[in-house]
Amino acid sequence: MKMTVEIDCTPTEARAFLGLPDVTELNERLVKEMQARLEQNMAMASPDELVKAWTTFGAGAQEQFRKLMTAAAESAMGAGARPK
Fold this sequence. Notes:
Layout: H1 11-18, H2 24-44, H3 47-78
């Protein structure tokens, strides 16, 4: 036998019914804090600094990827695989 029950309630009513705590105030404070930190960090970051950081990360990531591929190729060649 299959039975379906549909309950129409708000998230607040569902939390209360299940005995879960009301975290609305905590969530609002968390969102405000995140917004404040984001605004503070964005004010400190100039476009020049952002581009500089992104290009530095990009070059480092490319070098790491190259090293990874080189190590994988050397490992495959050592295992008897032929380079194509």
